[in-house]
Amino acid sequence: MSNIFIVIAGLIIGPFLMMRLPKLVFREKCAVSVSVIIPARNEAHNITELIDQLNVQTLLPYEIICVDDGSEDETAFLAKKAGARLIEAGNHPQGWIGKTWASQVGAKAASTSVSRLGGLSLDAKTI
């Protein structure tokens, strides 16, 4: 019987306690610098929405880098238009494949130290 009382009390009191928690209502660059790296190839149908979603987060990324991996559509144009820093992946060295090479190029170009977990790599389909 006491367990039921505890559950009911928690359900009643819980929302009131949650209202007292501070809310994050600021939109500014992160105190911790995060570079978002988006390796993209022929992602014109997704890239604008992804970048738009990144730009409305409560904590904004330090930078958004789109690494175009030889797209044959308007991926590069749309990414740049949406505000991303555009980098061309260039030719892949032997033993590398597209997405991993584009991610490596983006990590090297990032202003933050990706090696210290300061970077975030997203696939253009991540919406």
Task: Give a summary of the structure in a few sentences.
The protein is an alpha/beta fold. It has one domain (24-121): Alpha-Beta Complex (Spore Coat Polysaccharide Biosynthesis Protein SpsA, Chain A).
Number of domains: 1
- Please report the number of helical segments: 4
User: From N to C, what is the helix and strand string?
Assistant: HEEHEEHEHE
CATH architecture: Alpha-Beta Complex
Main beta sheet, described?
A: 4 strands, parallel
Please give the alpha-carbon distance between the first and last residues. 46 Å
Strand order of the largest sheet: 5-4-2-6
Global morphology: elongated
Structural class: alpha/beta
* Annotated CATH homologous superfamily: Spore Coat Polysaccharide Biosynthesis Protein SpsA, Chain A
Residues in helix, %: 25-40%
What does this structure look like?
This protein is an alpha/beta fold and 127 residues long. The chain has one domain: Spore Coat Polysaccharide Biosynthesis Protein SpsA, Chain A. It has helices spanning 2-19, 44-54, 75-81, 98-109; strands at 28-29, 35-40, 59-60, 63-68, 85-88, 119-121. The strands form 2 sheets. The chain has a 4-stranded parallel sheet with strand order 5-4-2-6, with helices on both faces. It has a two-stranded parallel ribbon with strand order 1-3. α3 (75-81) links the parallel β4 and β5 (85-88). α2 packs parallel to α3. The chain starts with a helix and ends in a 6-residue tail after the last strand.
